[in-house]
Design brief:
The complex is a heterotetramer, with two copies of chain A and two copies of chain B.
Chain A: H1 37-52, E1 59-63, H2 67-70, E2 80-83, H3 89-99, E3 104-110, H4 111-115, H5 119-127, E4 132-138, E5 141-142, E6 148-149, H6 172-178, E7 183-188, H7 192-204, E8 208-214, H8 231-240, E9 259-263, E10 269-274, H9 284-296, E11 300-307, H10 314-318, H11 330-333, H12 337-346
Parallel strand pairs in A: 1-2, 1-3, 3-4, 4-8, 7-8, 10-11
Antiparallel strand pairs in A: 5-6, 7-11, 9-10
Helix pairs in contact in A: 1-7, 3-5
Chain B: E1 6-7, E2 9-17, H1 22-35, E3 40-45, E4 54-62, E5 73-78, H2 84-90, E6 91-100, E7 115-119, H3 121-128, H4 132-151, H5 155-166, H6 170-190, E8 197-198, E9 209-212, H7 213-223, E10 228-231, H8 238-251, E11 263-266, H9 270-282, E12 287-291, H10 293-298, H11 300-309, E13 313-319, H12 336-341, E14 350-352, H13 357-374, E15 377-383, H14 384-388, E16 390-393, E17 409-410, H15 412-417, E18 435-436, E19 448-450, H16 464-484, E20 489-491, E21 499-504, H17 507-520, E22 525-530, E23 532-533, H18 537-544, E24 548-553, H19 559-568, E25 575-579, H20 588-595
Parallel strand pairs in B: 1-8, 2-5, 5-6, 6-7, 10-11, 10-12, 12-13, 13-15, 14-15, 17-18, 21-22, 21-24, 24-25
Antiparallel strand pairs in B: 2-4, 3-4, 9-16, 14-23, 20-22
Helix pairs in contact in B: 1-4, 1-5, 3-4, 4-6, 5-6, 7-8, 7-13, 9-11, 17-20
Classes of the chains: A alpha/beta, B alpha/beta.
Bound molecules: thiamine diphosphate (2 copies), iron/sulfur cluster (2 copies) and magnesium ion (2 copies).
One magnesium ion binds at residues 68, 110-112, 139, 141-143, 150 of chain D.
Chain lengths: 348, 596, 596, 348
């Protein structure tokens, strides 16, 4: 926001090493549905930045379009934000990073924004190993346009009754691994104990860090089979063909060690499988196998799946100067008329 | 048979097969004429293919310095059997056809009304060179040699050019010298050289240069301070990006670290290319992209974002034959409507229309100042003819005392001293607001950029009054733009004229020639070369002060004319269209015909 | 205090929080008035968000049958504390405010010049219902009940509607009856009912229906024979696709196999959606897509391909507030320029402008005939107001004797009897050529479709003459289109009028009301409702025959006016703009003001 | 082509079971560079269709833009063809297939067309398991725009000297597997003995069949290090900065059993590794592992990598009627006025 926020802070608030309180990392009040998983992730981002002792204004937060892409307004209000167009956050972030390699880039997107319209840009930003954290708030649907299926797995699909979504689901974690992403992790919006450290690790990674965060949409439940608990609502909905009632819900949380079944609002559940403590995330082949295995077991693997500790980011690969390009002086940019006259001479 | 007498005034066309090394030989021909101080313009007429199809190289020589295309071919060098019949037919009566007499022509091909000059090019090449590849390449030098005898091109000029090209590779130099001589002496012995169309040294070039528009555009971006380029290959814009990379390697590599003071990404497509430009400009680096029609169509949504979120953008559109894939290797000026109004909703974009490499250079450099000053997209409307052909042009110039106009950007200090600030507050009344760059200040100046509706403080709003107010304020920047863009160039007739001729870009060459042709016929015409959109007051008064106005364009619908009518409320009745859209550059004759 | 006296003439606005079940209750209110035979139009004014933000439902009741928006609120039902102050301020002097008196108003909120009607909605709901969700929903029915007492809505009409909605679920029916009665009797006891703004049964509706434009568009596609839909979700067009799917399930499921006689794909984006439409149409199925501004921008390149390769396309553009993401939940008519000339090169597309659900239906069905007859894209220009709000409309009608016009498609038999055939030969002189579908004939009729230049036999060519000839022939289809599209609708004043009013789409409601208002003031105005682009001769003569013409549009630049000037060569001086672009539907008062 | 081709056929020509000669499957004369790998693939397509006894007119051939995308003009001139726009062949083919499920769909694309601008559509056509054969003529560069790097591996990269392409290469075979393609194979333009059977198998597959065919670009050799053999040419090229000489080359062929090093025109070579005879292509996990293994060994795995023999195509998944939609009669399409009046009634 461009207006200066009320400066008053409770003196007693705890501060991080830079002297910032948690509130310095917060944003505007969320306008998402009460209980939306996305808000939990925003909270985790605030916590991670606070713990990381980041200067808020050194972060640039970018997003596409969707409920998920709205969240940058709800954290880091002292950071510049850019709510671009649908599915195009990766290219805008790439340009921003090309211009100034010194900022911390945090990209937020949704499963529709990244796995459908943004698929091409998602694949190519990985290929360039752009130094950024890329969070997909994955609810398996198009929230802002009222709940159409997205191309990613529906977290509720395991307990689904009746006809499943006919098409292949795209697993963004598997895709990122296949495309050579240098940091790949997955978590669940409600599992703050796992999520905060993952976000911190991602933001510290030198290169492209991808986080697929499962984040239930409390409002659009495209899973009719398992929704008895809503009979009253659903009667209204069916009757009026007008989904305009949103029951208030509490945030879903899950704090677990190894594996856990997490109940979703629609009464369905997802089976989260945490990578064991001993897991070595630097072994690509193992990561691919493990992922494939849990898919076959119908589990959703969470945790830090893979990291390339020797990652070299876009600028290293491209041999860009250390100093950010947006800080080059006019003298450094413009060769001057003398050289131009030599060039003219070559054209005669 | 009548034959054509003329000195330093002719059209010579080369008919080759693409991928056979002819382009370098042919360009030596134009270069030599240029070096003899005679105005010359070559045009490549090439296929959308890599090897084996007909390609032509058409050279106009004009003592009077007319640099547009001219109808009628005086001398055709026929090296391509595929197109031979068509080529023979294209020579104008009394003209000359030089052909490879290694294989004799069929009697039916012998037009009685033109002169045939048989040169056993392939034979001579085979007699003197062993490797097939050498034969193919040097065959081209053989006909260059013959031409130097026939048209009286100074032999040492050609040798000089060969030396420059092959530099230290002496073996190559000698091989080429020899081939040239072979052709020269064959012609000298078999034909009475020089022909009555011939060349004579002059001093009509002055300090002018010969350069492709795309290279000049790339240099303009270098001098304009661009440090970020994102692009996607597409004919005819590809060479802009490639030239930028070459110049940047030379001029922008950090002397100390040897690292790049620039970043170039070959994007996955045009949408991404534009996204990167927007991201970089938002973050304070000067960035640009170059594309052609199909790319501009794909960038439409992003152009709307940049317009509404007020982010500077520099886009180079090297136009080609549309619609759709159309004629990718032919020229047109048919993206005007698209570029002016690209994207949904009420949008309007600043356009610049260069006509020479010198203007490609200066307008591209200026585009960055304009874009950052106005916080909006600026589109440079070049075309294939200007971009990919060598053009005779005034030399490029840079005023070292000039400073970039980075527009209204607040520093940390500025922010410290500001009482209150809103990203979209119009404090100066010119419609342009003060922006901040990410990372500038710990507690002040952060804001949220979005393509959705917001208030003066960049807060999201759905309040219709606020929304309309913001739209009006953005619209008001248009008047500021009008005062900043390059003015149209007026060429008044000696005596007062009722007829006005309006044109832009590469139509200018033929248009100015047409004005002379009409003067010779006693018709006075005032001419106006449009250089930018929005149009300045000078354009308005030109329209008001002429009874009958002809608008010359290389598209089918008269797109610039529509802009004139829409934006200046001019009466359509008095604006007549002169159009050419067959993909070939328009000629003066066509314009004169169009005015009848 | 003055109070407003009127029967069947009022504006009632409901202020709710979105996601609280109010929409269904509010629509019952309009439905009830409709059932009482009184003309009524509701408008949703909703946020781009799912839950918790202010949303309004504005209902205009008009004995005279004026269905446009009207300024000034007579009765406001304030259910949303967030927007309460703004809502109180929006009531016009002498008007009424009904609020939830469960929490008393702050004295400062009590405007002296309006009437306050306190109804303890939440309290009553809590007293009678246990579950919070029931309380929330039935609270809405309580104020409906109170309104029925205050405005004299027939109680059994409301009960009838409730029955229809909850059908067999008797428990729900009773629960809702009770809630309505609670409100009804509370109002009856506490206020003197009915108020002097009230309703009285009439018979002014006839056989009209109440329907959303998007549903009518979807039905039009069903009746027009569309079997393929590819789409990408975007407000406000999403409900077109969803309605099409619902109707198709009912009307297009194969009775025998139970399989689908249709195919719907939710595409990965708008580019893909348009690609699928092009592929399906090329292959002989009727296909369409629906989107809004951003989607049209993204489809630009593909629209150029369809135009140049001459492939039928039906595109529905439900316009919203632009540019860029703009105001996604507000209405505008601001994609006209984009839709008319989408894509690079010289392109021009056929547009249809529906103003009622009945026209959404008929024009969509017609669009398929037009697209296949003309072998070009046809774009239906709807908008959020028309598409997403219930509108009073003439009933939908289908002439069973009507047959689809599939255009010029050759069967295997046709091909057998054809001597020679060229895909792009203009044998009939109407610019439209005969096409073939893949798989039709073993040896004849196969051809190559491409976006690049080709000759009359679909062979790739780079010959400029051929290319220009093909462009001209494609251009000539425009005249054929002019003769096929729906003509503009002329409304002449009784006495000869010098002033003309031109409008289209949803501006028509307010425009026709404005004509009456002006007549009452003794100003005669002829009105012309444009229904399609290209414009027919009737439009041309209307422009010629009026001194002063006002063009009413819901965009900032006067985009339709530009089309009129460009295409009809009309003098801009006599065409004046009347614009509204704040995202709310234009009102008659605004038009009258604009004409001053 | 729409003009009737010269009907004369040599009487003695061999014919297939349908009585068509090989010539009936050919197309116009190629305008590609002499020796271009793409022409070899066109030849293989002609051969495959001839051997498959397909009725030429029952095939629809679609492509994007590029040298590769031009090839549909060079085969099956009795089939309808559609040269769409750059990177969008998948969506156009999807629409065509939706309209008529009875034709055989052959999509041809390039590595630029599919792996860059077309990436999103490539991923999503796989997801829908559209019944088509999708051939990428993979030369690792943008041929038609004169040889820029593409996003796929450069076949010459193994022997490359000097600075390699800095970015991750996208392996379309790995990507297709990850996205759940039901038929995935790779071959080499010069290996007709392997290629023809693969194309036949792909065209018979019920669902999405992907073939990544390595197809050297003889003209644009972005690999300066290994091109001594071209010194003469290259001198000219450097000297004139004008790549306008295209040496004539013979098509590169390779017929091998297990593994082979194939020399490319630029003097570099690629290491092709053929899947052994015993290979079981129905095991997904094995396919993923094998692919990963050969990548690490710097080999390019060729052959039929994976096939899902129980594949159900888009129409089966979507329950579309058996009869092609473009053959529905007006009576079947239009519900008529009586029903419309009922609908009106519901709106009162
Ligand atoms: C070009 C374009 N097409 C469509 C839309 C409409 N739209 C807005 S958000 C959205 C999908 C959002 O889904 P996702 O990214 O998963 O975010 P979520 O709301 O589920 O968090 C769509 C299709 C748009 N804004 N722009
Ligand atoms: C929208 C668009 N952008 C760019 C181009 C220019 N273009 C033509 S072909 C091509 C790349 C072709 O590469 P590939 O698909 O690998 O085919 P190849 O020529 O290598 O066989 C490009 C970028 C275009 N035609 N359209
Ligand atoms: S609709 Fe779903 S995703 Fe969007 S805010 Fe509500 S709960 Fe979250
Ligand atoms: S440029 Fe390369 S890909 Fe294109 S035709 Fe020539 S060899 Fe083939
Ligand atoms: Mg989502
Ligand atoms: Mg390629």
């Amino acid at each position: 926001m461009t207006y200066i926020r009320p400066a008053f802070r409770h003196p007693g608030l705890p501060k991080n090493d830079l002297g910032y309180s948690r509130a310095d990392y917060e944003g505007a009040i969320s306008t998402l549905c009460a209980g939306c998983g996305h808000d939990s992730i925003s909270g985790a981002i605030v916590q991670a930045c606070y713990e990381l002792n980041i200067e808020p204004h050194r972060v640039a937060k970018l997003s596409g379009i969707g409920c998920s892409s709205k969240t940058p307004t709800y954290f880091l209000s002292n950071s510049h934000g850019f709510n671009s167009v649908h599915g195009r956050m990766p290219s805008v972030t790439t340009g921003a990073n090309m211009a100034n390699r010194d900022l911390i880039y945090l990209g937020v997107s949704g499963d529709g924004d990244s796995a459908s319209i943004g698929m091409g840009q998602f694949c190519h930003v990985i290929r360039r190993n752009l130094n950024m954290t890329y969070i997909v708030m994955n609810n398996g649907c198009y929230g802002l346009t009222k709940g159409q299926d997205s191309a990613t797995a529906d977290p509720g699909s395991i307990s689904k009754k009746g006809e499943p979504n006919p098409f292949q689901a795209i697993d963004l974690v598997g895709l990122a691994l296949e495309l050579g992403a240098t940091f790949v992790g997955r978590s669940f919006s409600g599992d703050r104990t796992q999520l905060v450290p993952l976000i911190k690790a991602a933001m510290k990674h030198e290169g492209f860090a991808f986080l697929d965060v499962i984040s239930p949409c409390v409002t659009f439940n495209n899973n009719v089979g398992s929704t008895k608990s809503y009979s009253f609502v659903r009667d209204h909905v069916n009757a009026t063909a007008n989904i305009d009632l949103v029951p208030h819900r509490d945030e879903i949380t899950a704090d677990y060690d190894d594996a856990a079944w997490v109940d979703l609002h629609d009464g369905s559940a997802i089976h989260l499988k945490k990578l064991s403590q001993g897991w070595d995330p630097t072994n690509k082949q193992a990561a691919l196998d493990r992922l494939q295995a849990s898919r076959e077991a119908g589990e959703i693997l969470t945790g830090l799946v893979y990291i390339d500790t020797s990652s070299r980011d876009y600028h290293e690969l491209a041999h860009t100067a250390e100093r950010p390009l947006n800080q080059l002086t006019e003298a450094e940019l413009c060769p001057g008329n003398a050289i131009l006259q030599q060039i003219n001479a070559g054209m005669r | 048979m009548s034959s054509v007498r003329s000195v330093n005034d002719m059209v010579v066309r080369f008919a080759n097969v693409n991928g056979t090394g002819s382009a370098s030989a042919n360009s030596m021909f134009s270069k030599a004429i240029f070096r003899m101080g005679i105005p010359v313009t070559p045009k490549n007429i090439f296929p959308s293919n890599i090897q084996g199809l007909p390609t032509w190289y058409e050279v106009r020589v004009s003592e009077k310095g007319y640099l547009g295309r001219k109808e009628g071919i005086d001398l055709l060098v026929a090296v391509n059997p595929q197109s031979l019949d068509k080529d023979i037919a294209s020579v104008r009566p009394g003209g000359y056809l030089m052909y490879d007499s290694t294989r004799p022509l069929h009697p039916s091909q012998l037009r009685p009304d033109i002169h045939f000059l048989g040169l056993p090019m392939m034979q001579m090449a085979m007699d003197h060179y062993s490797q097939p590849r050498q034969q193919q390449l040097l065959k081209n030098m053989v006909y260059i040699g013959a031409l130097s005898a026939l048209l009286a091109i100074e032999r040492d000029v050609i040798q000089e050019i060969i030396r420059e090209q092959f530099g230290n590779k002496e073996s190559l130099v000698q091989m080429n010298f020899q081939a040239v001589d072979l052709g020269f002496f064959y012609a000298f012995e078999h034909f009475d050289c020089p022909l009555d169309i011939r060349l004579e040294r002059r001093d009509l070039i002055g300090d002018h240069i010969m350069m492709e528009g795309n290279a000049a555009t790339a240099l303009g971006a270098i001098y304009g301070g661009a440090s970020v380029l994102s692009w996607y290959p597409i004919t005819p814009s590809t060479s802009v990006a490639q030239a930028f990379e070459d110049f940047a390697k030379d001029l922008r590599t950090d002397p100390v670290s040897g690292k790049k003071n620039y970043a170039i990404v070959q994007a996955e497509d045009e949408l991404a290319a534009m996204g990167m430009v927007i991201g970089a400009m938002w973050n304070g680096a000067r960035a640009f992209t170059a594309t052609s029609g199909p790319g501009v169509s794909l960038m439409s949504e992003f152009l709307g974002l940049a317009y509404f979120a007020e982010i500077p953008v520099v886009l180079v559109d090297v136009q080609r034959g549309g619609p759709s894939t159309g004629m990718p290797t032919r020229t047109q000026q048919s993206d005007i409507t698209l570029a002016a109004y690209a994207s949904h909703g009420d949008t309007r974009h600043v356009l610049l229309f260069p006509s020479t490499p010198a203007e490609c250079f200066s307008m591209t450099a200026d585009a960055f100042d304009l874009a950052e000053r106005l916080q909006t997209p600026v589109i440079i409307m070049s075309d294939l003819d200007l971009g990919m052909n060598d053009h005779l042009s005034p030399p490029l110039h840079w005023d070292d005392s000039r400073r970039y106009d980075r527009g209204k950007v607040l520093s940390a200090e500025d922010l410290d001293h500001l009482e209150k600030w809103g990203r979209y507050l119009d404090v100066d009344g010119d419609g342009i607001c003060y922006r901040t760059l990410p990372g500038t200040h710990p507690t002040k100046g952060a804001y949220f950029t979005r393509g959705s509706s917001r208030d003066e403080y960049a807060r999201y709003t759905e309040d219709g009054t606020v929304y309309a107010r913001v739209l009006d304020r953005i619209g008001s920047k248009w008047d500021t733009a009008r005062s900043l863009v390059p003015a149209a160039e007026l060429h008044e007739a000696e005596e007062p004229a009722e007829i006005g001729l309006v044109f832009f870009g590469t139509s200018s060459y033929a248009a100015m020639e047409a004005v002379d042709l009409l003067r010779e016929r006693g018709i006075a015409v005032d001419a106006l070369r449009i250089r930018a959109f929005p149009f300045g007051p000078e354009v308005e008064s030109f329209l008001d002060s002429h009874e009958q106005i002809f608008v010359v364009e290389q598209n089918k619908e008269g797109q610039l004319r529509s802009l004139l009518i829409n934006e200046l409320e001019a009466n359509p009745k008095k604006l007549r269209k002169i159009l050419n859209y067959d993909g070939m550059p328009i000629t003066a004759d066509a314009i004169v015909r169009g005015m009848r």
